[in-house]
Design brief:
The complex is a heterodimer of chains A (427) and B (251). Chain A is 22% helix and 37% strand. With 427 residues, chain A is α/β, with parallel strands linked by helices. Chain A has a ten-stranded mixed beta sheet, with helices on one face. Chain A has a nine-stranded mixed beta sheet with strand order 3-4-6-8-10-12-14-16-18. The longest helix of chain A has 19 residues, at 408-426. Chain B has 251 residues and is α/β, with parallel strands linked by helices. The two termini of chain B are 31 Å apart. At the A-B interface, α6 and α7 of A face α2, β7 and α3 of B.
């Protein structure tokens, strides 16, 4: 086929530039993943799923260099007691990390998990594969094939503190690829925190299997790093009465594409995914793409995305709720909103519902608006200068997304980080 | 305190003159009331003084304690001591009332080169002032004016006034939407602030509010000008006979 032939070129170039880790229990999954990438090719501009986001810089063999700027800011989650796992330019840093031991979980690195009968063997690449239909996600398959490291967590109890994956960046050209797998046994709970700028380019996959009545919380802050590029995928499958809640804060980044693919397969399960994003400048592009499949009875899903865009920044939201036949009593909610601080910035939204059951409640909404001039004048008339008043209203706008973070301390940390970011912009 | 001379104002986007030469002198410690029919320019006067966008000054001056107001940003006017109690206080979802108050108090202090108020001092102060206005802790926690009743919004305006301690307060139809009890509460709040040195400009349609906040001077405004000035008895005349007689008399 002519189309396949034209697609092979950049795909082959990328594959040719990467080295697949050999041997071990991941080998079969990696080879399968490679054939998936080869079958569909890496994303290109004409792909419908990439209509609003130019994939070029994500698929070229060598990443664009991203300059390092020393940004002094209080590290996030510092006031939270947590188990720290540190990656520098995508490479594990043992000295900076805590000992990988915590009661209630079994935790190890992908690069070191060599046992042939590994628990993750049935999971690694499995949820990613499921997430390839009905829409192909070749960058995730590429990750499964070539990721050199990542964190594997098997949750067998309820650990006393969250696991915090911390990313640091020291190289202008590093191209990082990490693949994390989390498996929660029935009735267990875990919170995973992720923060920091990762690399000039980052390809991440997080697969989360949430068994019956288990609860998974995920809070992520993608670092304030103006030039970094990232394509991240979360794949999760939820059992009966289980809960999955994920929140992502993004500030700047030349190109960020965050895919979240959720499958509700057990009855009475709950999945929430939310994002707050602050974009500044014409080279800022941020894309949230969500696909939620309801395949069980009486499940609830909720998507809340808020973006503040200024100085020519672009924000994208593609959110879909698919309700399969038989998924009765589904409660699906989706809202995406942007606050455009000037006329050069743009927000592109594509909300979708596809419903094959007849007893469901699904709603979606999308808005774009400017700052409320009346509110701005009210604040200024009380003595708050225009800059701080705008920041206050901006934070208020984002607050609805941050409110999705259930833990109050984490919510305050996120809010504090956002406020600090906005203040620095003003300076 | 507040000195307005020959103030002429038109709408920015329309060729429509609203104020056609307003002269007004409010001395320190005095309460002036402005009454007048709808569309006479009362609210425009309050907006222009506080710096709202959408108006263009085509002539005249307005100064607070000798400092020209019209060239300042709204926040500078506030820091200089001007306060406008809004006819329709704005709802701001997502911003807590307390956060808002504290940000405002400290922004003004900072602008004046004063030390910021500590969290503890602020809390103590706001609780005391809120209690006088029967504003409960729950209202302080809620987002600014969101879900407040008409009376609660107006009491919240007076609370802000009490916390910001301005030199010159403009009350734009603060009585609208208030029942008798709420009006009394608001008037008590204003009267408590009516100490020596603080000037008030009360814009109202009705004598009722002026029963509680006794004015020193009453002005009647019509078609962008102050057409008559007198004592409190002028407000009573309006209450009894409407504006028709006064307008006819001046014409």
């Amino acid at each position: 086929m002519a189309e396949a032939a034209t697609k092979q070129t950049p795909t082959q170039a990328m594959i040719g530039s990467l080295e697949m880790p050999q041997g071990g229990w991941t080998e079969a999954a990696r080879k399968d993943a490679l054939s998936r990438v080869q079958a569909v090719g890496l994303p290109q501009r004409r792909d419908e799923y990439w209509k609003y986001t130019r994939p070029d810089t994500l698929v070229q063999p060598t990443p664009e260099a991203a300059s390092l700027r020393s940004i002094e800011e209080a590290a996030l989650f510092d006031s939270t007691d947590r188990l720290r796992i540190v990656f520098v330019d995508g490479v594990f840093d043992a000295d900076a990390s805590d000992e990988l031991a915590l009661e209630g979980i079994r935790i190890e690195r992908l690069a070191e998990a060599t046992s042939d009968l590994h628990w993750a063997r049935d999971l690694y690449g499995t949820l990613e594969t499921r997430g390839q239909t009905p829409v192909a996600r070749p960058l995730a398959a590429l990750n499964t094939a070539f990721a050199r490291d990542g964190v594997l967590i098997h949750v067998t109890g309820t650990p006393s503190k969250p696991v915090n994956i911390i990313y640091r960046r020291t190289s202008e050209t590093a191209d990082a690829m990490l693949h994390h797998v989390v498996k929660l046994d029935a009735g267990t709970e875990l919170t995973v925190l992720e923060n920091g700028p990762v690399a000039a380019r980052f390809n991440a996959v997080l697969e989360v299997e949430v068994a019956d009545t288990a609860t998974f919380h995920h809070v992520r802050a993608q670092g304030r790093d103006h030039e970094q590029r990232a394509a991240t995928h979360i794949f999760t499958r939820l059992g009966t009465e289980s809960t999955f809640k994920s929140f992502t804060l993004t500030a700047n980044g030349a190109m960020t594409r965050n895919d979240c693919v959720i499958e509700l397969t057990g009855d009475d399960a709950t999945a929430h995914v939310a994002g707050a994003c602050v974009g500044d400048g014409p080279d800022f592009h941020h894309d949230d793409t969500v696909f939620i499949t309801h395949d069980a009875v009486n499940c609830e899903s909720r998507q809340v995305f808020k973006k503040v865009l200024r100085n020519g920044a672009t924000g994208v939201f593609q959110g879909k709720i698919l309700v399969k036949a038989g998924a009765q009593k589904t409660d699906g909610y989706q809202i995406s909103q942007s606050l455009l601080l000037d006329e050069d910035s743009q927000f592109l939204a594509k909300p979708e519902l596809e419903i094959y059951a007849d007893d469901v409640a699904c709603s979606h909404g999308s808005t774009s608006g400017a700052i409320d001039e009346d509110a701005l004048f009210y604040l200024r008339s009380r003595g708050v200068p225009e800059g701080p008043a705008t920041d206050l209203l901006t934070l208020a706008f984002l607050a609805e997304a941050v409110a999705e973070v259930e833990n109050e301390d984490l919510r305050e940390e996120i809010t504090g980080q956002m406020a600090a970011w906005l203040e620095r912009h003003a300076a | 305190m507040l000195s307005i001379k020959g103030l002429k104002v038109k709408l920015k986007d329309e060729d429509k003159q609203i104020l056609k030469g307003v002269d007004l002198e409010i001395e320190a410690g005095k309460v002036h009331a402005i009454m007048g029919p709808n569309g006479s320019g009362k609210s425009t006067l309050s907006y222009v003084l506080s710096g709202k966008d959408g108006y263009e000054v085509t002539g005249g001056t307005a100064a607070l304690e000798g400092i020209d107001l019209l060239d300042m940003d709204p926040e500078e006017r506030a820091a200089a001591g001007l306060f406008l109690a809004f006819q329709y206080p704005v709802e701001i979802p997502g911003v807590g009332n307390m956060t808002f108050l504290r940000t405002a108090v400290n922004a003004q202090r900072k602008a004046r080169g004063e030390e910021e108020m500590s969290a503890a001092d602020f809390l103590k102060e706001v609780r005391a002032r809120a209690k006088d206005l029967k504003i409960d802790a729950e209202m302080l926690k809620r987002p600014v004016n969101v879900g407040f009743s008409g009376g609660e919004k107006k009491r919240n305006e007076i609370l802000q006034m009490a916390m910001l301690e301005p030199k010159m307060c403009i009350l734009d139809e603060t009585d609208s939407g208030l029942d008798v009890d709420a009006m009394k509460l608001v008037a008590d709040g204003v009267n408590a602030l009516r100490t020596q040195g603080r000037g008030f400009l009360v814009i109202t349609h009705y004598q009722r509010l002026l029963d509680h906040i006794k004015p020193d001077v009453v002005h009647i405004m019509s078609d962008g000008r102050i057409i008559k000035t007198g004592g409190p008895e002028l407000a009573l005349e309006v209450e009894n006979n409407g504006y028709t007689d006064i307008l006819a008399e001046v014409a």
